[in-house]
Amino acid sequence: MSEHIGKTLRMSEFIDSRDERSFLFDTTVSGSVGAVNYLEDLRKFIENVNFFLDGIIVNPGQAEHQADLLGGKKRASSLIRVDWTNLYRGEDFALPHTLPRRINISDAHDVLFIGGTAAVISFFMGYDEDMEADNISSVANLVREAYEISIPVIADLRLLGNKINENNYHDTIKLGLSFMMEAGVDAIIIPETTEENYKLIGEWATIPVLVRFGKIPDENNIDLLFEKKLTGVVLDERILDKSYKENIEKLYSIIHKGGQK
């Protein structure tokens, strides 16, 4: 038996072992910019979508406050974001950032203590070398710590820095994936990219790869991901409108081909 059977079992809580597919939602932007529409009452949101997601990415405080709704049979697993950033604060924000920052606010032992299934950590690209080096160090240290207690680590690749442009965007995704595999993460969330990139990544990646969408993907988009051997879909606050519950329910059925939890 694998010495890390605990990690294997935890991975299966948000990657359905019946079809090796996953459907996640990320609620954690509120920790950086404050409450956003339809996430002001996170409890209501979770109650509405709990049975149509494999996992919900939450900040540590919300994982504690909403613990009774997360995990267990038929409920979405809690995936805990362990870092904070000001990078989502644009110039129109009440307190726009003057210096890019990313810090760890939690660790693998916290994730275990509050009942989380996995740790989620951001990896930002496109900024200066010092920030990138610090970010890679944080990811590697989290992986080493999490290894000892069989907690999976998911890297969340974000291309936000001013060095990112239309000419290097898609190649930077491959570079970020390479960095994170070298760091030892157990899964990664990448931005949308080209069909050619999906094919290359699906053949090359040795870890599950999920794709973040800022809009509702159609069935063709979803089928393409699985055709190219990727693992799943991550949605975030940008897709939220008054129809979010129906949209998420429909997507769950498409991703898992009508299967039930």
Question: Could you explain how this protein is built, in words?
Answer:
The chain is of the alpha/beta class and 261 residues long. The chain has a single domain (5-255), classed as Alpha-Beta Barrel (TIM Barrel). Helices cover 38% and strands 19% of the residues. The chain contains ten helices and ten strands. The strands form two sheets. Strands 1-2-3-6-7-8-9-10 form an eight-stranded parallel barrel, surrounded by five helices. The longest helix is centred in the middle third of the chain and has 20 residues, at 129-148. The radius of gyration is 17 Å and the shape is globular.
How would you summarize this macromolecular structure in one to three sentences?
The protein has 261 residues and is α/β, with parallel strands linked by helices. It has helices spanning 5-14, 30-33, 42-49, 60-65, 108-113, 129-148, 169-183, 195-204, 219-227, 244-255, and strands spanning 22-26, 55-58, 77-81, 83-85, 102-104, 118-125, 153-159, 187-191, 209-213, 232-235.
Tally of discrete structural domains: 1
Helical residue percent?
25-40%
Number of strands: 10
Q: N-to-C terminal Cα separation, in Å?
A: 27 Å
CATH architecture: Alpha-Beta Barrel
* Secondary-structure element string: HEHHEHEEEHEHEHEHEHEH
Number of helices: 10
CATH superfamily: Aldolase class I
Identify the CATH class: Alpha Beta
Indicate the proportion of strand residues: 15-25%
Which residues form runs of ≥5 with pLDDT under 50? Answer: none
Using the alpha-carbon principal axes, give the shape: globular
Major sheet: arrangement of strands: 1-2-3-6-7-8-9-10
Computed over alpha carbons, the radius of gyration is 17 Å
Mean pLDDT: 94
